[in-house]
Recover the amino acids of this structure.
């Protein structure tokens, strides 16, 4: 639906833009007196129409997010991969990982999780740049993952400018940004992907760094698989059909289900 609306909005934009360009070509030279006004108006039309087109593109790509294909994998590997890719972004910033020795066997879509980590590390780098690299003694990003009860927890902490004072949770909504060139889609995409995984996200203050500087921390959970369970078919939700007492054993995520969040079954049929 969103994609169709986007398409229908975009349809008339091209003729509007082409007409404005044609008017400019045809009449600009003939308007001696009012040339400035004419030129300004035509430019405004062309520019605004272009902006609408870009916004619609972003909107429809957001609405077209692929389904998550959850597979069992080592979360630590995914974290190392993303950090390796992103640490080249700004060599002045130290990006470190904080991972347990044992693998963290969890259920996730490797590509989408990579997208999550990339967005979050990019935001952290930008928060450090936003505070001014020269103003921070040891610009650092820490990407940590650990097991926490029946879930895995991943946290991305920085010592940048910190979360904006107000409306922290609104940052998860699309198009909310404080950056001049930001689209405000980064965290919305992250939140959507984690929701697809049946996880939870939180925006908290980071632990103070060694100089006492407090930046931002984005933390989220993912469903976990015990390291000894290697049957991939367990992406099926448990059913009561077998007549055993597997239901309500607490292995699933009662908390997420209570709130009507998509759990494992929500990603079937992809
Ligand atoms: N690590 C962080 N520290 C401080 N503020 C942050 C951090 N990450 C995000 N924010 C705030 O949340 C806002 C929304 O982030 P989001 O990633 O959704 O969009 P963006 O980064 O502004 O734009 P884009 O992701 O398109 O480049 C940012 O503009 C910034 O104000
Ligand atoms: Mg961003």
């Amino acid at each position: 639906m969103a994609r169709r609306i986007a398409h229908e909005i975009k349809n008339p934009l091209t003729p509007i833009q082409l007409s404005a360009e044609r008017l400019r070509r045809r009449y600009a030279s003939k308007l001696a007196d009012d040339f400035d006004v004419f030129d300004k108006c035509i430019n405004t039309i062309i520019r605004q129409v272009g902006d609408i087109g870009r916004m619609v593109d972003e909107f429809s790509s957001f609405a077209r997010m692929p389904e998550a294909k959850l597979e069992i994998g080592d979360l630590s590997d995914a974290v190392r991969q993303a950090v390796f890719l992103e640490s080249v972004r700004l060599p002045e910033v130290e990006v470190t990982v904080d991972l347990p020795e044992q693998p963290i066997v969890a259920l996730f879509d490797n590509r989408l999780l990579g997208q999550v980590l990339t967005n979050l590390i990019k935001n952290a780098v930008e928060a450090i740049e936003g505070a001014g690299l020269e103003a921070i003694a040891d610009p650092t990003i820490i990407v940590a993952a650990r097991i926490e009860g029946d879930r895995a927890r991943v946290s991305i902490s920085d010592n940048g400018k910190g979360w904006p004072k107000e409306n922290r949770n609104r940052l998860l909504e699309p198009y909310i940004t404080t950056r001049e060139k930001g689209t405000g889609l980064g965290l919305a995409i992250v939140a959507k992907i984690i929701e697809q995984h049946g996880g939870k996200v939180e925006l908290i203050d980071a632990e103070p760094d060694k100089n006492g500087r407090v930046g931002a921390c984005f933390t989220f959970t993912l469903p976990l698989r015990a390291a000894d369970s290697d049957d991939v078919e367990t992406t099926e939700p448990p059913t009561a059909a077998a007549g055993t007492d597997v239901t309500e054993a607490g292995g699933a995520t009662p908390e997420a289900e209570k709130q009507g969040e998509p759990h494992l079954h929500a990603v079937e049929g992809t």
Q: What stands out?
A: The radius of gyration is 24 Å.
